[in-house]
Amino acid sequence: MQMENGRSPNEKYLHDFTYHGKEFSFSEAKEVLSPYFDGSGSVDLEKDDNGIAKICINNPRLKNAISVKMMSDLDEITDKLYQWTECKGAIVYGTGGNFCSGGDLKMAKKMNNEKNGYAMSVYMGHILDKFKKLPIISVAYIDGTGALGGGAEVTTMCDYRLMCNVTDTTGIGFVHSKMGIVPAWGATGRLVSITGSAKKTLDLLLEGRTLNAVEAMDLGLVDGTVASLEDAGTWLSNKVRQDVNVIRAIKRTVLSYDDDDDSKAKARELERKIFAPLWGGIANQAALKLKLKHNR
Q1: What pLDDT shows up at residue 11?
Q2: DSSP label of 45
Q3: DSSP states of 49-115 as a string?
């Protein structure tokens, strides 16, 4: 293998094209992002008496695009769900007939440098990982224009994904490559687990297409279709009919077989370092200026 400056080609690539700045803990990342807590949008929690949580992504003016403030809301909600010992399950959905159009582009333009990109990856990635480990059964209900970019990443924190079958415009798309970036919130690893295939994940990320329900179900990315949020609630209720302690034990047991914290932590750290230079890079800035529409 040809060496350059004592580095193999792979080592040289990782050196030349990854983040070399300060590494942040979760609390430090939150502090870096604190100037961007602009109060735009919210994520809201409603607790039902039957042990089901309804988590609403609420930023309808921007088709529920995610702001830093909304990331913080989701973190607080996740902590509340850990404390709610009678909780069996959760439905994540968007207000106004749309799930989530991704990250707030106005926010993205303001914080468009690799330090902020690294901090955001640490912050939101930790939140989605923490939600994924909740001892409850979770489902994302995808409707309207669907789940795109960061919105698609959010769905991967859930155990299941359901897509609305009322309109053919609803889709799920990991459109990051069109924006000159890669997933930053841990979705790549979750996609390999969800689809059961590194090749399928490669195709999803390279093509950046928005998939309809049939395509997404063929990949194992979506678990079914329903007509409404109420139907999604019924679907989830059928999954969590057993005693709450049995349900929570099942979830914890399944998660224990999926745990390999050391290797996952290394992979997540590499993901953050690969993502950070792309955030605010030439391709990303060009995409932000184009105001792309993520059509199929």
Answers
A1: 67
A2: E
A3: TTSEEEEEEE-GGGTTPBPHHHHHHHHHHHHHHHH-TT--EEEEEEGGG--B--B-HHHHHHT-SHH
Q: Which long-range contacts (CB under 8 A, 24 or more apart) does 281-289 make?
A: 281/114, 281/180, 281/181, 282/180, 283/179, 283/180, 283/181, 284/112, 284/179, 284/180, 284/181, 285/112, 285/180, 286/180, 287/178, 287/179, 287/180, 288/105, 288/108, 288/109, 288/112, 288/179
Report the pLDDT value the prediction gives residue 178, as an integer from 0 to 100. 94
pTM of the predicted structure, to 2 decimals: 0.92
Calculate ∠ Cα 164-288-74, nearest 5°.
Answer: 50
Burial of 87 (0-12, 13-18, 19+ CB in 10 A): buried
Q: Which two tokens stand for residue 222?
A: 């979506």
- Residue 290: the pLDDT is 82
- Confidence grade of residue 223 (pLDDT, cut at 50, 70, 90): very high
Q: What 3-state DSSP class applies to 157?
A: coil
Query: From the CB of residue 21, how many other CB atoms can be counted at a distance below 10 Å?
Result: 14
Instruction: Tell me how far apart the alpha carbons of residues 132 and 173 are, in angstroms, rounded to a whole number.
Output: 20
